[in-house]
Amino acid sequence: MYSPLNPEITEEARKFGLQAVKDDFVTNFLISTLPEKRIRQGELENLEYFKQNLDNKRTRKRTPKNFNRKSLTSRERRKLKLFDIPKEGHKFETYLPMHELWKEYMRETLGLTDKTKTFDQYNCESILKADFHGCFLTVSKSCCPSYIATTGIVIMETKNTFKIITKQNQVKCIPKRNSVFMFEIDGHYLTLYGNNFCCQPVLRSTHKFKPKKYVAL
Description:
By secondary structure, the chain is of the alpha+beta class. Helix content is 31%, strand content 16%. It has seven helices and six strands, in the order αααααααββββββ. The protein starts with 6 loop residues before the first helix and ends in a 24-residue tail after the last strand. InterPro entries: RNase_P/MRP_Rpp29-subunit, RNase_P/MRP_Rpp29_sf, Rof/RNase_P-like, Rpp29/RNP1.
């Protein structure tokens, strides 16, 4: 367990009346200190087992950070262009079936399929946790005047932006912060405040928000 001392050190120790440390110091120390009853019960073997594990942990090589990382970093995703939509996909008609599927999904989320229940226009929690891929969204207010009145289908949502495709087959990236959006479902017009959506879409279902009320116009 321990390497032997330099002979010069042991010679100096003998001059002062000190005894050299034996090779297996821990074992000899336990034998000299533990009662014979505890040694007979096998406690010494247990301590030897723990001592070996401790030595193995000391000699074990540490694996570098992110050695077993399987996911890509943001820089790697941008380099591979995973979030870039090819120009062949810049067609508004291509996303119309997705919009129809989104309307069915949103009707179930807002409870519009049950005719016996009245529509709750302030159902903030359900809207915050909803998925907006396929939503026909309109920008009603924005800090950038050129974004106002932009309308299209949401084809991608990130933490801070909505990426929509317009009827003119143009893909536009609209920032959520300080923007107000509007969408219509079965004659109900709902307003979304972008500041409440500055979160990764996959985390909205678990996060707790303090949103503003959504006003039905």
